[in-house]
Design brief:
Elements: H1 4-21, E1 47-53, H2 58-71, E2 76-79, H3 88-96, E3 100-103, H4 116-133, H5 150-155, E4 160-161, H6 175-185, E5 191-195, H7 199-214, E6 218-219, H8 222-228, E7 238-239
Parallel strand pairs: 1-2, 1-5, 1-6, 2-3, 4-7
The structure holds zinc ion.
Length: about 240
């Protein structure tokens, strides 16, 4: 479970986002009133989750965290296990600033090729490292390349998070192409895939965040996005959007 601090940030954010769309609340009407009650139009606030794979990397991830903190935008990071050691402070910072953290395997492997023992070791080694930093948290899985067969989904003891918008930001360092691809494709409830390993991806992500904030989008972690849509996350189930 997430700790109180992280939840606090999440709820503050939700309240902040909704406040933009809501009209001021009228004083409570007497019970005899025939004026229909106007429900808050919460669903009119477009929401999106931005996610980052393959990190952490000290230089680029720090720059991204600085930019997200400045804008009070939460993100979700799926970390590669063999990159965790030595970056404990950076990961602690992610956690303290309200970001969700998940597992992207220990060695960034294609899970389809593994036995059950190998598959579970890839998850467990990463989870043990993360638990040593955040003992009370749970860590959801994003399989590298989104590749995971039905059998492996059944072995997975967490929700499986895929994506619905992929600008292929690893392909080149063309920031404007990456930004434009996301902005053309993004819709309410999407999960955006990016990578915090590359300086160009981080620059693009910051521009995407600014553009979507300007358009009235509210950023949520993946966990918050599912909760906002009333979806109860289940182990072994793949989620691409909400
Ligand atoms: Zn990856």
């Amino acid at each position: 479970m997430r700790d109180f601090g992280a939840w606090g940030i999440g709820w503050i954010l939700l309240v902040f986002c909704f406040a933009i769309a809501l009209t001021p609340i009228e004083p409570v009407a007497p019970v005899t009133s025939t004026v229909p009650v106007e429900l808050p139009q919460e669903e009119s606030v477009p929401v999106v989750a931005i996610t980052f794979d393959d990190g952490p990397r000290k230089s680029t991830t720090t720059k991204l965290l600085d930019a997200l903190a400045l804008r009070e935008v939460p993100a979700t990071f799926f970390l590669v296990g063999n990159r965790i050691s030595g970056q404990e402070e950076l990961i602690q910072r992610m956690h303290q600033e309200g970001h969700q953290i998940g597992i992207h395997t220990y060695d960034h492997v294609i899970l389809r090729d593994l036995s059950q023992d190998e598959f579970e070791a890839q998850i467990q080694k990463s989870r043990d490292l993360l638990k040593s930093i955040m003992p009370d948290e749970e860590f959801w899985l994003r399989p590298p390349y989104g590749i995971l067969d039905r059998q492996m989904a059944a072995w997975t003891d967490s929700p499986i998070i895929l994506w619905s918008v992929d600008p292929e930001d690893w392909k080149d360092d063309n920031v404007s192409r990456i930004v434009q691809t996301v902005l053309e494709e993004v819709e309410d409830g999407d999960i955006i895939l990016m990578h915090d390993l590359y300086a160009s991806s981080v620059d693009a992500a910051i521009q995407v965040v600014d553009a979507l904030l300007e358009q009235g989008y509210c950023f949520l972690t993946v966990e918050e996005l599912l909760e906002y849509r009333g979806i109860t996350p289940e182990n072994g189930v793949r989620y691409r959007e909400a």
